[in-house]
Give the backbone structure.
Amino acid sequence: MRENFFKNALLNPDVFSVTWELVPGRGAKETAQEKIPDLVRQAAEGGKIHALSLTDNPGGTPAMSADFIGSEIVKFGIEPLVHFASKDKNRGAIESQLYALDRAGVRNLLVMSGDYPVFGFQGRPAPVFDLDPIHILQLISEMNKGLEYPGIKGTIRHQASDFFAGAVVSPFKATEAEQIAQYYKLKKKIDAGAQFIVTQLGYDARKFHEVIQFIKQCGFNLPLVGNIYILSYGAAKMMNSNELPGSVVTDKLLAEIDQERKEPDKGEKARILRAARMFAIAKGLGYNGVHIGGHNIKYEQVEDIIRQGEALVPQWTDLLKYFHYPMENGFYYFEYDKKSGLNQEKETNRQNAPPDAKIGFSYGISMFFHKLMFEPGKNLYGLMKAISRKIAGSKLENIFHKLEHLTKVLIFDCKDCGDCALIDIAYLCPMSQCPKNQRNGACGGSYQGWCEVYPFKKQCIYVRAYFRLKKRGQEAQLEKNIVPPCNWDLNQTSSWINFYLGKDHTSKKHDNSPAGK
């Protein structure tokens, strides 16, 4: 098996890893695809790039498969880093895709939920989101050990794969609930097997510092990669207006870039210098590498950023003043340090901060009935379990199911998946109220607390869940217990009966199976 130079570089404390992002683009033989071999050849010959990062249908639009381009890049003797999104494939297709990548020798993956599908042939594609990034990381971890599953003659165990899989986190969130939700989910990603972390895109030095502090505070020891985007005015304007969800460009930064583009070189020198300064700051802060992206970037520009960035590292603290772009009334996880311009180790006091979301009376009612009916050994639990056993498989089951579903539609907009995750998310349904069906935490696309898909119309359910739980001092519940993907064997069946008979994930978590009782 050949050496994984990207993995080795990222895990080597004496090496500062650099990845360069390529966007395959829509089409097979268009300009975007025809340019890629030359760019790959230059990167391979230059020897300064440790991996070429390949996007997976960015912006929610169709593009050339990152997997295929990755298999082509391997032939040039340089490592591909394939963005691996869950938005377009169910778990069967995801497993198949991983087998193909393993066979092709494409080992480096950046796992994410992906941008919500926007348009395709004859209209918007159907979003899938069968697995969230945490589930995919779990699958990859199992494949790296040798995936086991039941066969006709007993357990089948595959040969172990050698994936080096990372995940994404955004420290660039404006509100308390959004930011805490990102960090809670980050813990789950690491627990699920993430081997490195890449930040989302932003230009606030305190936020870059914040995420590395958080990781150290939690006792995690894995590489952290800073995201650097060579910011043109067009891209900055889109990010500023939230047209590229998850990327943050403030009004102040946009105004500066607007002035820079009036220079004779249309702002190119300023763009490269900004990226080089970010490179130096990331290395000075203790990041293990950087991820460089940008529209129509030439290899010479990437080399220039590396060269200038390395030269600026000794004075990185003096460069912090160039990245003071706080979001209006933005939340920081740690207290401000006036001396350094970064953060103290002390966490921001969140106890008395006003909620950003209405809690509503339905949560209290839901919790009342939960304690009454769904806590093993208490109140009506035994009675409901006996009733469920009695009617399961009878004609009464259909009536019972319809009554349950009607109740839950009125209160929770229930989609009748049969493997209910309401209790995991403070009685908010991820299957009906989260367009990406995220069962383990918020995606990275929320904006000012609003859902990526419905900005200014629907709040992110994890923002709402956070404040519901915080009111009871239980917000840390969102970082505990990885919630399994929905078991579609149970679709269109009674989740109550499934719970009491030990079929759903919640009952199994409580060891509520018939065998255990």
User: Anything to note?
Assistant: The radius of gyration is 24 Å. The first strand starts at residue 17 and ends at 22. Residues 512-517 have pLDDT under 50 and may be disordered. Residues 37 and 359 are 53 Å apart (CA to CA).
